[in-house]
Amino acid sequence: MTEWNEFLSAMTLALVRVSGMVTFAPFFSSAALPMRAKAVFTLAVAYLLAPVVAALPNAHAVLSFTALLGELAVGLVYGLTLALLNEMLLFAGQIAGLQFSFSLVNLLDPATSIQTPLMGELFQLFGTLIVLAAGLDRILLASMVRSFRVAPLGSYALAPHSALTIVRAAGGIFLAAVELAAPVLAATLLVEIAVSLLGKLSPQLPVMSLTVPLKTLTGFALLAGSLALWPRFVEARFDNLLDLAQRLIAAPPAGSGG
Description:
Elements: H1 2-24, H2 35-54, H3 65-99, E1 106-109, E2 114-117, H4 118-133, H5 136-150, H6 160-170, H7 172-201, H8 207-226, H9 230-250
Antiparallel strand pairs: 1-2
Helix pairs in contact: 1-2, 1-3, 3-4, 3-6, 3-7, 3-9, 5-9, 7-8
């Protein structure tokens, strides 16, 4: 009976940790995945991990408010940190959509139930495809499993500096988004300059009628050509965010003296 109670406690704590990651992390948080499938997946992972993580050194498979809060914090650190990748792709799509003159074309994002630009949705779909093709979802899940050794079950306490670090990391999505959209920005800017010069040389030229189609065609051509560089770019950002999440989990709480 004692072993069964310990197993249920360990499974519950593991379930809370994995649920926090699944709620926000790329691909796992996608609204395209049915909620029942996510629930079954989370329960299966927690069931398989429970006997292993409960036997790790310094693990405390005892249900308490502090333990549940700590496990939720670990999952949220992973989920919210990796969610910055989706935000970076969305912002890059907004920048590109503005240059494509698609700024008024919005779609209802099923993940957030808000209006998002068309190009933002396209960029997020490209990013999700790269995550799946490169196996980054499996790497994230493996890192989550390894986190039970770094932060044993029921022993993690979220430090204020961890939350501040995630907030500061969110500021980096703006620079990363501009870097991703830079080829499109440069190409469309050159098109605008070229059309403006032609308009000065030939005032009869219908500049307004030429600018938008030329910018759109040039932007799509550059976007298609730059897709070959996307996997390396997305994987690098994913690795950086995953390393940040791992450092935050491994870092001792402030004042612990560790």
